[in-house]
Every structure is written in C-alpha cells, then in structure tokens.
Amino acid sequence: MAASKSAIETLKLYLSKIKDALEAGDATEHTHRPALKDLIESLDAGITAVNEPKRVSCGAPDYAVKRRNLSIGYIEAKDVGKSLDEAEDSDQLERYKKSLHNLILTDYLEFRWYVDGELRGTARLARQRKGKLVSDRDGVEETAEILNDFLSHNPEPIADPQKLSE
Hints:
Layout: H1 5-24, H2 33-43, E1 47-51, E2 63-67, E3 70-77, H3 84-88, H4 91-99, E4 102-106, E5 110-115, E6 118-124, E7 126-129, E8 132-135, H5 139-151, H6 161-165
Parallel strand pairs: 3-4
Antiparallel strand pairs: 1-2, 2-3, 4-5, 5-6, 7-8
Helix pairs in contact: 1-2, 1-5
C-alpha cells in the first residue's frame, strides 16, 4: 500500500526537526522525543503517544501508543547514532519483545517493527554521515508504511478486571 501524501509530508517535517536539533550541536536522545510524539500523533488523529508512561511488567518503554485509551503498542527510542543492532540484543529489548505484542525500536532515523517478538519490518529515513543527515531514497515511503502498520494494530486485550471496568 502506498503511503499517503500527508504521511509523507509529516515524515519530511519530522526529519527536518531531527536535522535542526542535530545541527544545533547539543541534542540528546530526549531532545527528539517531542518530534517523535508529534509524528506518531500526526499520522493518525485517534492516536495518543504517551512519553514516559507508567512502568509495565517488563520495564518502562519510552512511549505507550494508545487509541481511545487502549494500548496498541510501544516505542523504545535510542539516541541518533546508537546501534540498534546492539539495542536489539540487549536484555531490555529481549524482555520487551517477549512481553509487548506491538513494538517499535528506533534511533529516530531507523524504525524496526516487531510483532510478538518477531521483526516484521525495517525502514530508514536517513543516515548520519560526517555530522549531516543524508536521506535514504525510499526511506520516507517505507517508514510511512511501517508506522501505518504499527498504528493499525488492534488494542491489546484487557486481562485485568479492574482495568476492564475502567
């Protein structure tokens, strides 16, 4: 399925925000969080991305992504330039992949999508080369598709009677 024109424009704006923050020279992993939150919420009007949500049984993913207050997935973000291969092999990610049904691992430029612990797709918006961001040719379209698939997931079933009543 081809990405919508608005999704492509939204991703280009997001990438511009990341680029601007990196060029300022003092960005950290947390600097980019508002841009990622805006991106996720802009792709689907019914979505809320909660930055630093309450801990869940397997840990504290950086974002809980919700539709109508029901969790549809989680995002774990690492700083730009951090190896996602290393993050993927960490104890933290192993716990998340085992426990979280719908998960994105990102360094804000590359997005890896997991369903039930299995890698479903990878897309990269850009690479960092000599301090500059270089866009990947098909990255915007591929990232839009992965994020659309991630956001289209059904909410997690509610097993706790108290939460069900809420």
